[in-house]
Each structure stands twice: as structure tokens, then as C-alpha cells.
Model the fold of this input.
Amino acid sequence: MREIAFLFAGQGAQYPGMGQSLWANSPKAREVFEMADQERPGTSQQCFSGDKAQLSATINTQPCVFAVDLAAAAALEEQGLRPGAVAGFSLGELSAVTFAGMLSYEEGFKLVCKRAQFMDEAARENRGVMAAILNVQGRLIEEICANYEDVWPVNYNCESQTVIAGGKEDVLRVCTEITKARGKSIMLPVSGAFHCRHMEKAARNLKDYLEDINVSDLQTEAYSNYTAGPYVSFRYKELLTRQMINPVRWQHTMVNMYQAGIDIFIEVGPGKTLSNLAKKIVPQAEVYNLSEYDDLGKIVEALNARKIEPPPAASPDDSSCFPPSKENHPYRLRRPSLGGGLVC
Done:
């Protein structure tokens, strides 16, 4: 049998109108938006009616994307599709672990709102920028960045795409060297330098906030941006904090998930960024994305056409609500290896 993972979208994937078709057609998705509006009035309207500038502000982006992520996952669950593992890109990691049971939806949403506040404050105090580097190996980018004090590789997206962050002057210097190395750089429309030292104050604030939060054991395996491997219980809070000031090891995460037996990936939330990356990193896998309600029927139809049956829904007091083992997971399938492998 085959194993499915949900991939939760992160900041940068937002777009005006996101989530509205889910709200209009899926009762479970609508419940997510109602929860978000109760905790932070106006969240749904920002998703549905906010313009690009409004949605690009970190303080708005993170709670809105979080809500759409969970709404999309809830719509899949409503159709009987439950994952064997989850992962999320940066902000999406909080969506993933919330969906997996570490936090209630309300607690997860409150945490994301605090995270957005802390990151916005840190970005205002430490002005920075980010740039995507294309067609240059990650190791060369690391060597170039090491020559400067205020720039770091922060997102290892795939073999041909790495994001750097830091002070504007040093980022531009690295971009100049990248051009000389026949690579390409693209400045990103973000409000700060994320996943580097510019976010140290935000990480400390989040750590303090988490001290008073009770977390539960994960009910579905979740992968960490910081380690690129599964979460372990005694490091839940540490991993959520460390990912704010360390690189997102997305390529390693995807390879590790595939090698663990996952060969169907469904991106949930706005956009197609993660599904496009998945196709590059693990081309042997089946990849889908759910950002609009129309996508849902296509996914269910495609999986049914392959005779992939979702596991039976579990009752709250049923032990089957816990994830099955790797050996007997309902979506397990033996598949070929990656060959030479992929490295950042």
C-alpha cells in the first residue's frame, strides 16, 4: 500500500482570495475560519478580500496562511484522507504540528499570531532582505556567504534553489558573486531577513511564550525544518524555536520522507510552491496540491483511479486514531531508491 504526506504551505504563498472556495464548500474548512475569526476578528476577510500589500505584511500573512493551511487539510480529512506524515515550510511547520495534534487549533493559531508579532518586531529593529539564488550548488553559496558577516543561506529549497538572508549590503555583494559564478539571484518581496541571526530576539520571545504552553504528543509523524527528520517528543518546543534562526532544510526533509516510504505528497494551503519543489526533489513521487476547493475533487478522483483507499475514519476513543506503524500503514508502497541522492 501507499503512504501519503501533507505538506503545509508557508509565508510567501499567500494571494488575494485564498481560502474562500474552501470556506464556501467545506463545512470543516469553514469551522477553521470561524475559529480564526473568533481568536483574531477579520482574519477570514483578510484572506478573501485583502489586497497583495495587506497580505504581504508578516503580521497578517502568518495567521492568514495558517488558517488556509488548516482549512485545506480539514477539507481533505472531510473526504476521509488522512496522512501518515506531515511537514511544513517555515510558518507551515506550525500548521503541520498543529494539525498533527501537538496543539489545539486555537492554541496553534494564538502561537502563530505571537510568532508573527515577534518576527515583525525583530524585522523592524534589524532591517534585512532575502534573495533566491538559482542554478548554484548550496555548498558554493555557503562558501561565498562565509566571506561576509551579515548574510547566510537560510532556505535549502532544492538542488538548484537556495535562499539567502541578511543585511542588504552583504546580500547584494553575494548576489554579485553569484552572477560571476553564472548563477541568478532574485530579490524577494519580504519584510525582513528570516531564519538567521536577525530573528534572534523573536526566537527568544517565542521561547518565553512557549514556556507557558502545554503541548501534546503528536498523533501523526511530523518532520522538522531544523533537523529535516521526525520530531521527538522532548524537543517539541526547542525545534519550534530553533527553526526561526536556522535554515529550512526542505530538500533534505523531502528526501528523508521519501526514503521513509512516503511517495504521495499533497500540498495544503495557498499556492503550488511546495508541490513544484516536490516534483523536482522526488520526481518518482506523486504530487498534488489543494489550495482551492476544485482541487479536492481532482485529488480524490486521482487517488481513487489508482485504487488507493483511505483508511477508515477513527472515533475519538478508538486506538486507530493513532498513526499506524511504518510496516502496516495503509498508504505504504515499496518503491525504487533515489539512486545518487540529492544533497544541499
Q: What stands out?
A: The domain at 128-187 is CATH 3.30.70.250 (Alpha-Beta Plaits). The beta strands are 4-8, 85-88, 129-134, 151-158, 161-166, 184-187, 221-222, 264-268, 286-290. Residues 58-78 form the longest helix (21 residues).
